[in-house]
Design a protein that fits this description.
This protein is of the alpha+beta class. Helices cover about 15% and strands about 35% of the residues.
Length: about 140
């Protein structure tokens, strides 16, 4: 019976450990060691977002990639730091109205302090809602 040389196994194990440590301690978006992801993929259905809660760090820039899988037009509007809709600090999906089967995105930078920021669909403002949790 022949044995595999230990020398060949050690570099592979070391490389895996380094990759795991880099991922665990990585910056994930440029705003701190435990920042959430810098991008999210969201399915927009008729009267819902999936997912509808997004954890981010204060000051973190995120991109929300949107796919309209419903039968109606949808969009996404983030209320901004003041947590009020339809003023200058809102962020709105591009394109603003996403037709069924189409995709869009929303780019947004979290405010510099912790809090909960609301988001919604302008067409279905009481049903299609969500939150961004700024830590």
């Amino acid at each position: 019976m022949t044995r595999a040389p230990r020398v060949a196994i050690l570099p592979a194990a070391l490389a895996a450990l380094v990759a795991l440590l880099a991922y665990a301690c990585g910056d994930n978006g440029g705003s701190g060691g435990n920042a959430g992801p810098s991008s999210f993929s969201v399915s927009m259905g008729d009267n819902f977002y999936e997912p509808n809660e997004f954890p981010v760090k204060a000051g973190q820039k995120i991109t929300i990639n949107l796919k309209n899988e419903g039968a109606a037009i949808h969009n996404m509007r983030v209320a901004g730091a003041d947590n009020k809709y339809n003023n200058e600090d809102d962020a709105v999906s591009d394109p603003e109205n996403i037709s069924p089967g189409d995709s869009g995105k929303l780019e947004w930078t979290a405010p510099g302090k912790a809090g909960v920021i609301n988001l919604r669909c302008d067409i279905h403002p009481t049903d299609s809602t969500g939150t961004i949790i700024v830590e």
